[in-house]
Amino acid sequence: MGYCNLPLNDDYEVPEDVPTIRSSQGKDVDSSSVGWMEPVDLWTPLKEMRKRYNRNGYIWIKNLLSREDVLAMREHYFNHLSPTGLLAPNTHPRDGIFNPSNDPLSFQGVGGHPQAQCIQLLESAHTTPEYETFCKHPALRSFVRNFMGWEQEIMLKRAMMRHNCPGSLATGVHYDKLFLRGSDADFLTAWVPIGDCIASGGGLIYLEDSDQLGRELEDEFRDHAKNLSDEERVSAFNKHMADDGYLSHDAEGFRQTQAKGQLKWLVGDSEAGDVVFHTPHMIHSSAANEDEKGRIRLGSDLRFYEAGAPVDGRWCNHWKNGDKL
């Protein structure tokens, strides 16, 4: 297999060959319509990082966090959920290997329809001291301040850890502003893969150069909602939206219709310690998890505002199943 080097990131190589990507519905995204995300390392100048973020709608930072800190968080999460029978027998929680005797649709995480027996543990996983400490990781917080040029940042309390079992449903196509319309202030999303995640292992996929498309779609939704009440207007589930708030569950169909077949879905082989930051309007989804080792994909979604900015107050409480946000 041949490899290509990326500028400003000579220590990291990505395969030239790209995988076929599958989503929950519709046709597969053929490899000809898939490209590789561009990673950068911590030594890249901030000016260049910001340029890439503004141009691409995302920036993927390699090794921002300690690998050991991330893997310890992975171990803690799966230890917490182990009473559900989620994990394969005689495997280590840090590996997060799905029990193949389970129905993956019955063991969905945040954003899915988990079994009743899992809900309490899923909710309590978001309030453990270990997760709260992880969200305050000094390397993460320092980078956010420096990158955004903020004196102080705040993180919305409604942070989420999402696990995606092999054979389960993928996250639908969306941009984050759909669910965070309660404030006009700019915010930064961090997606933290909690463990290694190959491109076909259920990680996030980004529609290239789609920040502008996301803004145009949001302008259309805002126009349609102008006669709704304030509460309905900011809801991702108002009468002009899909029942679950997503734009689509068919990544290839969305690419063909909304992007006119001209944009590629971008993927990456992420490692524990990497963090991807993206804009509020960057369109993304997740791939179906087809990890050959049976690893459960785990990631955390964190949203940051500048301290003092008006925030979406609906997101100032811990995640609860069925909170309709």
Short description:
This protein is 24% helix and 16% strand.
What are the salient characteristics of this protein?
325 residues; 4-stranded mixed beta sheet; alpha+beta; single chain; globular; 7-stranded mixed beta sheet
SSE diagram, text form:
Elements: E1 3-5, E2 13-15, E3 34-36, E4 39-40, H1 46-56, E5 58-61, H2 67-81, H3 116-125, H4 129-135, H5 138-148, E6 153-155, E7 160-164, E8 188-193, E9 204-207, H6 211-224, H7 230-233, H8 251-257, E10 265-267, E11 275-278, E12 284-286, E13 297-306
Parallel strand pairs: 3-10, 4-5
Antiparallel strand pairs: 1-2, 5-11, 6-13, 7-13, 8-11, 8-13, 9-10, 9-12
Characterise this structure.
With 325 residues, this protein is of the alpha+beta class. Helix content is 24%, strand content 16%. Strands 4, 5, 6, 7, 8, 11 and 13 form a seven-stranded mixed beta sheet that branches. It has a four-stranded mixed beta sheet with strand order 3-10-9-12, with no helix packed on it.
Backbone structural class: alpha+beta
> Residue ranges: pLDDT <50 for 5 or more in a row?
1-10
Give the rounded overall mean pLDDT: 90
Task: Write the element-wise H/E pattern from the N-terminal end onward.
Answer: EEEEHEHHHHEEEEHHHEEEE
The count of DSSP E runs of length 2 or more, i.e. the number of strands, is 13
> How many alpha or pi helices?
8
What is the gyration radius calculated from CA atoms?
Answer: 19 Å
**How widely separated are the two ends?**
43 Å
Classify the helix fraction into a percent range. Answer: 10-25%
Biggest sheet: strands, sense, closure?
7 strands, mixed
Q: Which outline best applies?
A: globular
Could you tell me the strand content as a percent range?
A: 15-25%
